[in-house]
Amino acid sequence: MLEESSSPVETSDVADDSVKITRHTENRPANFAKLINNWVPHDLVLKDAWFPLAHSFAVSKKPVRRAVYSNSYFLWRENGVAVGSEFHPKETGKASVSEFTDAKGRYPVMEHYGYVWGWFGNPANADARHLPSLPFLPPEGNLPKYMLGTVRFDCAAPLSLENLIDLTHADFIHADVVGDEKMDSETVEVFNDSETVTMVRSCTNKSVAPVMKMFGGIKDDVQQVRQVIRIYLRSHCAIAYGRFSPGDDVPLFHPCVPETRDRTRLDYAMNTSNAHNLFRYVMPKASYKVSRQDSSMTSPQSPRYMQPEKRKDLHSPLDEAGQVYRALMQDLANRQAQGDYEYRDNVSEDCSDIIGLRKELFQY
Amino acid sequence: MAFETDVSELAKVVKAAEQHWWAAARSEEVTNDKPFNVNIGDMPVVLWRDNDGMARAMEDRCPHRRAPLSLGCIRSEGWIQCGYHGWSFDGEDGRLKEIPNMKDKQKYPPVYRGNAFKVEESGGFIRICNSKNAVIPAPMGETMPMAGSVDVALDHVHFVNALFDDPSLIFHIKGVYFTPYLMSELIEENGRLTMERSCQWKTPHWPAPFSPEFPITLRITTDPVTGECDILLRDDDFNELLYATLAPVPAARGVTQVRWRAKIGANRPGIMAKLMGIGKSFAVLPHIDGAALRVLKPTASIHAEELRANIVAREQAEAISDGSEKVAA
């Protein structure tokens, strides 16, 4: 039975006794319905945020190039310390620096969790307190390289994140990797503050993910699944944390760096340190397959979200988390348009309890 | 739901043809042996060289009986002579110089003239403009050695948009694969539309969607109205590997005439960059792959029209402002 429907959105009738959705509406923007139906993610450019631009191992003496909203970030190390500049050291002829860098064209840069993070926004506002909490990653990094990788999407970053927090898509386009939609029941809980949105989905007796059957040694036909998606809005980063029983804990850091408004770079880190058998090595590489499956949909989607659209999207109650994400992103963008760049909630506060992290497995 | 076409946008481009400098020909295409015919939109244009080697351009229409001047010849004086009744015109100002059988008459009233274009030649391109008040553009630098001209059966707007969305439909660079991933979307930079695309060498490589780094990028800077663009291929160490200039000109019946020139960079480290310099390094494709174009996802080009409109509006406002200041002075 679908619980309450206070959210003023259009819904299609997908009522099902096996689904229970719990909404926490207290922190939502006032004009929620309007925001979710004016969704032009292509136009959202949020500032004053840390972006995970590169895995630490990728940054050496030789500059590597990254971009945030078409602004060049050249990263390299000086005496072992990561630095970022809008100019390549060999580049000449640039008359002036942008508003995002200092007088020398240098960006604020910091290194944590095995990533080099670049600040996009007013350099004076750069502060380590605005770094997202990722408690399942070692603060100093050093995860084995097989747990790390890069995938790309030719779509707007918010679409990629909306896709991630869309709980029903995975059972269809990723069924051959993470299992299909068959289960006895599920509960979904969505809550947020001004800087994050979190969805917790608990599935009872869900079909075992094929990848776990093949490489994780799972013999059962069903498993209990707890999936958490937590998005840090400004940094376009997400935690995707799955707890499987029988099975393993699989926390994934899923950043979506908007290299342009229509291209997304994802330098992921999947900490499978506690996983068993070949699954530990295979699962991080599943990103290559899963990302292509996602891209097959988000790539053609993206141009259709570049301009305001008169026709409203239809929604089901299962789109709850995505709707909250849409509304919060625009609420932030609207605040920034009015000159308010303040962080009203602390994104660096340890979120272990929020995501239900089994701390005994990830002690750093 | 109504179907929309880009007819109005194309019309705007053609209208703009009267105000802007268009690279109507490559230098070597225009001689003093034979008139050379092109189109700017629906306007036929004839080009030739006078006795001093100066390139001249006029509307390809004799003001007498509307015959194409390009069917005539170039006289020893450097004038162009209509092949129908033999009227001869000076390309500098379009003035009628001579009518056969009326050779005693030395001067004709000022209205006896054809429509002459302003002409500028540099960098191996001949640019023309149909505005009397047009400011001569800054000359281009060197003349790049590789060159070609093609007539592509695709209108100017879609041609330029295809260039933004997938350059592999438009041109070929030896050994280079254009990925869908961008370092910069289409933005305005100094009054031009600029974007930069990540590229790979056509060697065994990690698939583009999973590649953490790309060894080369393609930077395209485009005039917002004419679509004339400068192309720069450079490696991840900022060595400039190849330069090219493409000059697409809207022609009749939705065809785009493209003149191009290119050269390879002097410093090209790496085997693939060196191999690029052997044989045909660069070429604009004479045919567009319609099947690929039809399903090409519009991405970088989506904001092109808005960017163009903003730039043009600002330039017009500045021109009006400058004019007002001069009047006031």
Name some characteristics of this structure.
heterodimer; A: 364 residues; alpha+beta; Naphthalene 1,2-dioxygenase Alpha Subunit, Chain A, domain 1; Rieske Iron-sulfur Protein; 2 domains; four-stranded antiparallel sheet; globular; B: 329 residues; Alpha-D-Glucose-1,6-Bisphosphate, Chain A, domain 4; seven-stranded antiparallel sheet; 5 helices; 19 strands; 17% helix
Write the element-wise H/E pattern of chain A from the N-terminal end onward.
Answer: EHEEEEEEEEHHHEEHEEEEEHHH
How many domain units of chain B? 2
Tally of individual domains of chain A? 2
What is the end-to-end distance of chain B? 54 Å
Radius of gyration based on Cα positions of chain B: 22 Å
Low-confidence stretches of chain B: 1-7
Give the helix proportion of chain B (percent range).
Answer: 10-25%
CATH topology of the largest domain in chain B: Alpha-D-Glucose-1,6-Bisphosphate, Chain A, domain 4
Q: Compute the number of helices of chain B.
A: 5
CATH overall fold name of the largest domain in chain A: Naphthalene 1,2-dioxygenase Alpha Subunit, Chain A, domain 1
Principal-axes geometry of chain A comes out as globular
Mind telling me the C-alpha Rg of chain A? 20 Å
Q: How big a fraction of the residues of chain A is strand?
A: 25-35%
Oligomer: heterodimer
The largest sheet of chain B is: 7 strands, antiparallel
CATH class membership of the largest domain in chain B: Alpha Beta
Low-confidence stretches of chain A: 1-15
What is the level-2 CATH architecture name of the largest domain in chain B?
A: 2-Layer Sandwich
Order of helices and strands of chain B: HEEEEEEEEEEEHEEEEEEEHEHH
Largest interface: A-B, 36 and 23 residues
Q: From the helix content, strand content and strand pairing of chain B, which structural class follows?
A: alpha+beta
